[in-house]
């Protein structure tokens, strides 16, 4: 639930403070009621205690990179609160496999035997979906219920930082999500765009985009510690 006037208890404390202006807005109560009703009617992913996992693993001031996703995986056991990631023991979906292929081609990083990206998140890679919950087997079923307003506020809060952030936007959905928010901030922040890693579009420019090495170069330019991408 997302109660009025205070942040959800699962939300990491620095994010709760960064998003303080949201807690008085009525859309959150409506969103909370919607998600609660959906959970009563059937499975909703990720589990309630993992909805805000991305924020837990990557506190506000530690964000170096944002990799923007759309909504959680809708298969049983797949979603655990991080965009593109699945828990260990769960077969990596096709888009994630293609991410690993590009990483291998770009930086010669070995393709891992699992799809859990928590180690990236703990190094400052915010793995953010535009929508944070989904009904089992129904992609985009929780779209347009308020999550997009909340995640717009997340992106806006990062854009307000003096400390630069690298926004990684794969596919039209991520690019549309961030374009209007980032339009006035690109002098301070960085934006990397490419087609989505889905099998339907990966060969149209995702493969060969070199984003992982570009991220490392940008972090070096900022004097920040680079990401250890190997899992």
What order do the helices and strands come in, and which of them pair?
Elements: H1 13-18, H2 26-41, E1 44-45, H3 53-57, E2 65-69, H4 94-107, H5 118-121, E3 125-129, E4 134-135, H6 147-159, E5 166-170, H7 172-182, E6 190-194, H8 211-222
Parallel strand pairs: 2-3, 2-5, 5-6
Antiparallel strand pairs: 1-4
Helix pairs in contact: 6-7
Compact overview of the structure:
The chain has 231 residues and is of the alpha/beta class. It is built from 8 helices and 6 strands, in the order ααβαβααββαβαβα.
What does this structure look like?
With 231 residues, the protein is α/β, with parallel strands linked by helices. The chain has eight helices and six strands; from the N terminus they run ααβαβααββαβαβα. The strands form two sheets. It has a four-stranded parallel sheet, with helices on both faces. Strands 1-4 form a two-stranded antiparallel ribbon. Helix 7 links the parallel strand 5 and strand 6. Helix 6 crosses helix 7.
């Amino acid at each position: 639930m997302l109660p009025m006037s205070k942040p959800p208890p699962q939300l990491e404390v620095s994010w709760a403070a960064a998003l303080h202006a949201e807690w008085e807005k009525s859309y959150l109560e409506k969103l909370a009621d919607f998600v609660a009703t959906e959970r009563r009617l059937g499975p909703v992913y990720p589990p309630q205690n993992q909805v805000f996992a991305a924020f837990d693993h990557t506190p506000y001031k530690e964000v170096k990179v944002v990799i923007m996703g759309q909504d959680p995986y809708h298969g049983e056991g797949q979603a655990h609160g991080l965009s593109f990631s699945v828990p260990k023991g769960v077969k990596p979906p096709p888009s994630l496999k293609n991410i690993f292929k590009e990483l291998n081609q770009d930086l010669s990083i070995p393709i891992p035997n699992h799809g859990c990206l928590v180690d990236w998140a703990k190094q400052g890679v915010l793995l953010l979906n535009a929508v944070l919950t989904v009904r089992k087997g129904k992609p985009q079923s929780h779209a347009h219920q308020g999550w997009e307003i909340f995640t717009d506020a997340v992106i806006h809060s990062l854009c307000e930082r003096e400390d630069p952030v690298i926004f990684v936007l794969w596919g039209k959905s991520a690019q549309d999500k961030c374009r209007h928010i980032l339009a006035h901030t690109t002098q301070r922040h960085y934006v990397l765009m490419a087609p989505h890693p889905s099998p339907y579009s990966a060969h149209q420019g995702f493969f060969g985009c070199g984003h992982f090495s570009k991220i490392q170069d940008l972090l070096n330019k900022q004097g920040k510690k680079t990401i250890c991408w190997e899992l």
